[in-house]
Design brief:
6 strands, elongated, 2 domains
């Protein structure tokens, strides 16, 4: 029997999932948690096989919790469950080792199938999100789709904005960038909007691709 943790800041959703998933004889719910810190506290006492992890939670979000879980308990599988299909979260969660990424509108049969698939060593990503992942990596490796930017706009990028560009290229979320640069998330979003406008890029995915393709990512510059 697999051991499962449900992490979500909405108590009603946590308890609803617990009731439904507990009906499956192959699943044992060992805890329900309101945030990532509570997940880590449970894991110190009893290691789960699979964690059903919300993205946006107080105290510690699901992306950062995933990173810590996969560092200390690499055998534990994490399925990200969220109402958001934001590129920022998709790539950060997958980068840190999430095995599945589903939207909260998924049916219960599909969710149970995803849990069992991931537990057995597979990976499962919502089709809408999968297309973004495939697109991202195909653009990364296809010369004819090399991202170009406004060269005059590059000269207007400030020193702090270059740090933001580098961190986005490394896959960090707005929250992680804010923490690293000692800024608010709102300020990071403003910097991102300014950068996109100056470089004439569509979104942060294009920016991340360009940062990697052009060699802009310099880890030593952002310590």
């Amino acid at each position: 029997m697999m051991k499962l943790i449900i992490a979500d800041d909405q108590e009603l959703l946590r308890e609803s999932l617990k009731i439904v998933l507990s009906m499956d004889p192959e699943i044992e719910i060992i805890a329900t948690c309101p945030d990532g810190k509570a997940v880590l506290d449970v894991m110190e006492r009893e290691v789960a096989d699979v964690i059903l992890m919300d993205i946006r939670m107080p105290v510690m979000d699901g992306v950062y919790c995933t990173k810590l879980v996969k560092t200390d308990w690499p055998q534990t599988k994490v399925i990200i469950l969220t109402t958001f299909d934001d590129d920022d979260f998709v790539f950060s969660a997958l980068k840190y080792g999430a095995s599945g990424y589903l939207l909260k509108g998924v049916g219960m049969d599909e969710l149970i199938h995803a849990i069992k698939t991931v537990h057995s060593g597979g990976a499962l990503i919502n089709p809408n999100i999968a297309s973004k992942v495939v697109s991202f990596f195909s653009e990364m490796g296809t010369p004819e789709r090399f991202i170009t930017v406004d060269e005059s706009g590059k000269k207007e990028i400030t020193a702090t904005e270059w740090k933001v560009v580098s961190l986005i290229g490394l896959g960090l979320s707005n929250k992680e960038i804010a923490s690293k640069l000692f800024l608010s998330e709102g300020t990071v979003r403003n910097y991102l909007s300014s950068i996109l406008a100056k470089l004439m890029l569509r979104d942060r995915t294009q920016l991340a691709i360009w940062a990697v393709q052009s060699g802009v990512v310099h880890p030593e510059d952002i310590q």
